[in-house]
Amino acid sequence: MSDGIGKFLLSSLGKKLIMGLTGLMLVGFLVAHLLGNLSIYGDVDHGTSFIAYANKLHDLGPLLWVMEIGLVALFGVHIWMALKITAENRKARPQGYAHPNTFGKATPASRSMPYTGIAILGFLIMHLIHFRFMKGIAAPGSVELHREVISVMSDPLWGSLYVVLSILIGVHLAHGFKSAFQSIGVNHPRLNGLLGKMGIALAIILALGFASFPIVAMFAWRTSV
Amino acid sequence: MSDTTFSLNLKIWRQESADKPGKMVDYKIDCVDEHMSFLEMLDVLNQQLIEKGEVPVAFDHDCREGICGTCGCMINGHAHGKDSETTLCQLHMRKFRDGDTLYLEPWRAKAFPIVQDLCVDRSAFDRIQAAGAYCSVHTGSAIDGNSLLVPKANAESAMDAAACIGCGACVAACKNASAMLFVGAKVSQFALLPQGQIERKERVLNMVEQMDAEGFGNCTNEFECEAACPKGISVDNIARMNREYIKAAATKAD
Amino acid sequence: MSNILDSKIPDGPLADKWDLHKAKLKLIAPNNRRKFNIIVVGSGLAGASAAASLAEMNYNVTCLCVQDSARRAHSIAAQGGINAAKNYPNDNDSIFRLFYDTIKGGDFRGREGNTYRLAQVSNNIIDQCVAQGVPFAREYGGVLSNRTFGGAQVSRTFYARGQTGQQLLLGAYSALMRQVNRGKVDMRPRREMMDLVKVDGVARGVVVRNLVTGELERYAADAVLLCTGGYGNVFYLSTNAKGCNVTAAYRCHKQGAFMANPCFTQIHPTCIPVSGDHQSKLTLMSESLRNDGRVWVPKKKGDDRPPSQIPDSERDYYLERKYPSFGNMVPRDVASRNAKVACDNGQGVGASGLAVYLDFQEAIEREGRDVIEARYGNLFHMYEKITAENPYEVPMRIYPAVHYTMGGLWVDYNLESTIPGLFVLGEANFSDHGANRLGASALMQGLADGYFVAPYTVAAHLAERALPAVSTEDEAFQAAEKGVRDRISKLLSVGGSKSVDYFHRKLGLTMWDHCGMARNEEGLKKALKIIPELREEFWKDVRVLGQGGQMNQELEKAGRVADFLEFGELMCRDALNRKESAGGHFREEYQTAEGEAKRDDENYRYVAAWEFKGDGKEPALHKEALEFENVELTQRSYK
User: Fold this and answer.
1) Please, are residues C124 and C303 in contact by the beta-carbon 8 Å criterion?
2) In the predicted model, what is the mean pLDDT of chain A?
3) What is the mean pLDDT of residues C189-199?
């Protein structure tokens, strides 16, 4: 091919494709992450099931590293593309309208993608500082992680923030999921309705699922620990 | 027929030429008849301005029956006004109420520079068309029309896409000033027909390249374009273009 | 009869004329074509197809249009379809039958040779357009679909929903843009042709105004193709786009191109009635609607009951009553005139009394709403947008409106005007439709001229005449530009009190009243008095604000209206001269006992070609006799 693949990937449609694909993969990660985290409900007091889940991850050894690097790359590319697209889009209309834009088919979720995106990026950093780079996390089978989770989540301030950000993830997905399929060209009259519904369902499930930890922690676990 | 007249407050973008600054200017117009089209209301305003010795408002228009795609401006943030599947010339004043304040602004996009007042330069669309929206068939070299069978469903979908009038409302309504609906519709028309197969890959690659070079924004799938399109062109055409592009980029060998 | 007018119709049997003629036309070798420059003015069906075809052949083409894009020429608004003698539906259609219908529909005032050629190439047009990817309607088996159309007893009309003109134009536009991409067409939108430049009597260029910057530009060439459409806007209210005008053609007329049959204008029967004084243009509803809609008025004069409350027995389905074999499908001129008769008789409906009903009730009951919606959905939608009435429930109200002009610059068989090197294509010429054009034939003619006629005949002009090189610095160009500049300054400096539209409306009303659907000597003479007075007032009292050196839409309009004010007079003069009724030209003095148009074949079987003799001077009439060797002149009957 005389034109490098990079040219296609960095065209307007290439960027969409990348956004869509990385977005869908990140959705996959979120689902796995939620399923893993659900293990915390197995044994709240001692965290045995949660620690067992963490140990299993550690047992993956180098594979875990690969997964983590892959995840960082996914996030990195998704964020890079988002920033690039947003910057280009701003440039495409140097002068805005005097009358505010109105909504035809856009939704609050679609309009807020860059903002929910940035909020989620902030959340990600916070989340990593809390649980990925905390002291003692390296020790396999450590109960520290479990304790730390309970303590952060049950803290009214942090807990509330986690609830809000879980909801923002849902909002981001409410547009992002279906949008990703459109971007990669998956679109069919018989499929579109289903994809839309799946996107909303997934957004609600993930938002509620992630929000459930701080909510339960703040109201039920706070006293029990 | 004058018992149904009313007045409007208009705020209109006035700009003498591309290189001069513009601003919103207030006008008040009485005697708006509910049977008037929006452009006829502007005609009346211009007559009043001429009588007062003021330079009338420039706006592009031609067929005034919704097919040439010449007219169009934003009315209170809606491309061609709020009504669905309507061009500015087909919008009638019965849709407005006495005392309404209307902001009239030109299509705004880097790729659509302003020519004067509400007129913009949409030649970017022509250049995208020139980049590949055709079948390379010489005059006189065509085979019999019926030797090429087209499934009715494909012909209908191609026609749905081909209904585009090139007005630019999709770009104006898109928060990213993206031209995906216009280009998607054109790519789809040919992708759906047997005539379009030979140049299928080059077409989508070249048209997208030209679209990007013109400075249109990226699509973020909010479908404002579809909502604004006076011909109701579906965003399914954008998805089809995405597919076409991915396939072409992945498999085109040259 | 004048011998100035040599129609150059080739000898030989009708069916062989075009082939014999082509065989004799001189050629330009492929390598030499790039040495020739051709200007195409207009980018509608005729202009875009000619520009694309000539560029494909390797000529250097400059294409100019007033619109902001070549894709917006008014051909785009044609709705119903395009005829071709393919005989796909097996209903015994043929080239001869299409030719015969067209010549008869034109009330025997067209040229046999041209019209036959039109029918011959009609089939190539369909093939060409299909190959370009025009999404014509299809049957379930994948073959092209046909429908019947006004004035025909066979299904020969190809269509793309109600947007056939749009799709054909976009096809031609795509071919044009392909040549732009190849660098063979220099496409210049937002340019208005202000004058033709002749060198040694041959058309060698144009002076145009750049509508964005206001600058005057000169273009030199070896041939100029005028594809600038019709002059229906002389009536102010018409179905033409607002930008349609006679200026380019009229400027050529003043330079020596004869204007032929300007009084032949077509009034389309199915338009949306006028709603008030603000009206700026009229909207056509495709006459395909008459395939299923029934035209009627109340039998009782001034019956103002809602249509649903008027029982069938009190309705006058006048077309079905008067013309049992064609019924609602009679040609346009007949349908229009009968609507006028009904309204003049006090049976008109609606607030103004200037409308008749077009009723789909029976069709909906017979075929089902779905079928009607599939056929006419977009038209019904358009009607509802404009009138706020739902035609599925209430009958449409329609009234005739000016739609098409059969007259135009005189051309010979090569489409060349009386100025050598100036070719006129499409609606701008006069040649193929006689006194009335059948539905779905305008698209056919525009594309026939552009794709299949001009490319051959223009080459012959280039090959036969050894043209010296010209430069845009030549005196002729400078003089032409000065003339244009002076005229623009004059328009800007009048500084009167009335807008351009004021004069245009007044002219339009005069034309409609006296040179519209029905004409008579008294009215035409009156118009010939009013128009010069109005013209004088225009040049004394028009107010054109703004400057010439920038975009100025009022100035554009002013120039066009100034030409209409001269051209309208010529139309009336032509209408006055033609003391017969033929097609779209209905002289009240000349009608049958039943009120049908009555031709006078003995005295008026000719093309009236007018020569400009100077401002303020009477134009000279030249007559080209029309010979009919293959059809028998009959009184048209659609009963």
Assistant:
1) no
2) 90
3) 98
Residue A53's domain comprises: 13-89+107-224
The pLDDT, as a whole number, for residue C120 is 97
Please give the full DSSP string across B169-198, using - where no structure is assigned: HHHHHSTT-B-HHHHHHHHHHHHTSGGGST
Residue in C241, C220, C236, C267 with CA at minimum distance from that of residue C165: C241
User: Is B122's CB within 8 Å of C68's CB?
Assistant: yes
CB contact, 8 Å: C274 with chain B?
A: no
Determine the structural domain holding residue C576 and report its residue range.
481-622
The tens digit of pLDDT for each residue in B162-175 reads 999 999 999 999 99
CA B22/CA B40 separation, integer angstroms: 24
- For residue C3, is pLDDT > 90? no
Q: How far apart are CA C196 and CA C528, in angstroms?
A: 27
Neighbour subunits, A (≥3 Cβ pairs < 8 A): B
How many domains does one find in chain C?
2
Q: Can you give the CATH number for the domain in which C273 is found?
A: 3.90.700.10
Residue type, C489: S
Tell me the domains of chain B and their CATH numbers: 2-115 (3.10.20.30), 122-251 (1.10.1060.10)
DSSP character for C638?
Answer: -
Picking from B11, B242, B254, the nearest residue to A183 by CB comes out as: B242
H or E stretch including C385?
helix C369-387
What residues are paired with C270 via a beta bridge? none
Measure B2 CA to nearest chain A CA, in Å.
31
Please state, in angstroms and rounded to a whole number, the distance separating the CA atoms of residues A166 and A175.
15
**Which token pair is B25?**
């200017």
CATH of the domain at A196: 1.20.1300.10
Confirm whether C636 is a catalytic residue: no
Rounded CA gap, B89 and B39, in Å? 6
In this complex, is the C-beta atom of C212 within 8 Å of any C-beta atom belonging to chain B? yes
Measured between CA atoms, how close is B219 to chain C, in angstroms?
Answer: 25
Distances (CA, A) of B86 to B96, B139, B231, C222: 15, 35, 7, 44
In order, the DSSP letters of C579-598 are: -S-BTTB-BTTSB-TTS-B-
pLDDT > 70: percent of chain B: 98
What pTM value is reported for the model? 0.96
Asked, for residue C47, whether it belongs to a domain, the answer is no
A2 within domain boundaries: no
Q: B110 at the A interface (CB within 8 A)? A: yes
Q: How far is A116 from chain B (nearest CA, A)?
A: 14
Contact present, B216 and B210 (Cβ < 8 Å): no
Residue C171 lies in a domain: no
Number of independent structural domains in chain A: 1
Task: State residue C79's pLDDT score.
Answer: 87
Chain C segment 25-44 residues within 8 A of B by beta carbon are: none
* Distances in whole angstroms, Cα of residue B100 to Cα of each of A98, B33, B112, C288, C473: 16, 14, 28, 39, 55
Does any domain span residue A94? no
Q: Of C378, C402, C426, which closes a domain?
A: C402
Give the closest residue to B156 by CA, choosing from C364, C377, C292, A185: C377
Rounded to whole angstroms, the Cα distance separating C304 from C286 reads: 27
Neighbours of C263 (CB within 10 A): 25
Burial class (CB in 10 A: 0-12, 13-18, 19+), B141: exposed
In a domain, C504, yes or no: yes
Quick one: DSSP state of residue C381? H
Name the domain boundary from C402, C419, C441. Answer: C402
Q: Which two tokens stand for residue C67?
A: 């619109």
- For residues B157 and B192, the answer to whether their CB atoms sit within 8 Å is yes
By Cβ distance, the residue of A2, A100, A182 closest to B221 is A182
CATH of the domain at C526: 1.20.58.100
Q: Is residue A137 part of a domain?
A: yes
